[in-house]
Task: structure prediction
Amino acid sequence: MKKLTIYNTKSRSIEEFIPLSEGVVTMYACGPTVYDFTHIGHMRKYVGDDILKRTLTLLGYTVKHVMNITDVGHLTSDSDEGDDKFEKKAVIEGKTVWEIAEFYTQYFHKSMQAVNVVPPNIEPKATDHISEMIGLVEQLIAKGFAYETEQAVYFDVSKDSSYGSFSGQKLSDKEVAVRDDVIIDPSKKHPADFSLWFKRVGKFRDHSMFWPSPWGNGFPGWHIECSAMSMKYLGDTIDIHTGGIDHIPVHHENEIAQSECATGHDFVRYWVHHDFLHVDGLKMSKSLQNFYTIDDIVARSIKPLAVRLLCMQTSYRKPLNFTWDALEAANAQLKKVYRFAAHQTVVGTMSTPHEEEFIEALADDLNTAKALAVVWEVFNDSTVNDSDKWATLIYFDQVLGLNLDAVPKFGITPEAQTLIQKRDESRVERDFATSDELRTQLEALGYEVLDTTEGTKLL
Ligand SMILES: [Zn+2]
Result:
């Protein structure tokens, strides 16, 4: 089995990946907070997870992949400030919080399907795991790592000597960042203490999602959700935990603290973080009106899988600057490959040197740009016959995920035949307006239209 090397945020270095159990990888991915539309920025993160998972699978590992759905407890800031994202959105849309979560979960699924992300083995919802979260908070209180105030149950960062080491932050920096919150709950011992359980009091007195607990009615903090679900399905120590780089300083620092203090074991062995997708140097967001969804892509007649191709052009550890031009270019490349795929009926022999180069690139900290270079090298090599080229591309597609196998095989339908005939007649009559219109109709059927001396030809 070829070894994977991967950048581990924990050690800030590239390490050889060795799972706890031979041949099996436990992987937890922070999932979406389903209060708004999934956009291309989110897609980049999940395509990144998918490339990692497919690479591990290609290398021979069995991957146990858990990704949560956060449907409660995420405030408008990643720490304890602000309002609950769901309660706020429910008011704006005139729906219940449950309806909000359901609608945007479906939109997330639709987006993931469009970019061919393999679904996780388990996709737990936070609201289905409240008892596990309460259990974990009870353990932390029993061990002296958490305390209760009138408003919440907090994790006591002063009891965890390694708190802050993961993100390399000093507690004094955190003090500045969370100062506002101290004013909200004066009983908080340290400004960096974070909420494990919010009570349905104060600013949350009308919170519509709440559950009974030993500390009265309330709801869990966002961070405890991931720890509880990860432990439930994958055990105290997992091999890989993924997330966006924005999760490092708060969410993941807190996940580590509460998990390791509760169990006394290492929580995660390899932390994999994806960099952002930017639009002209800015983060994709609604307020900046640079927020694009799968529907925006389809509306521009771009194939959603062009997003995958675009993502793979840049290392997951570098920012990806999104432009429509770049996506259009990826779409044009994809169409070229699909056109080729549509004509292939015989699977030949895979090129072994290219297979090795491809795996080598991916095993080197998921160097997708290099792997794509191998793909284009094969694709453009005129010395390789089509059936062998096709065999190699199908092999690559296990990680590329461009659905090459599903491309309909080329054939001229009777409908297209009629349009060709009409078009050739209009061209003889020099009626170019009609000829152009018929070209558009043929293109809408998925053909590429060529004008030759013998008339219209389709590809
Ligand atoms: Zn998480």
About this structure: The mean pLDDT is 92. The longest strand covers residues 238-244. The pocket of zinc ion is lined by residues 30, 226, 251 (CB under 6 Å).
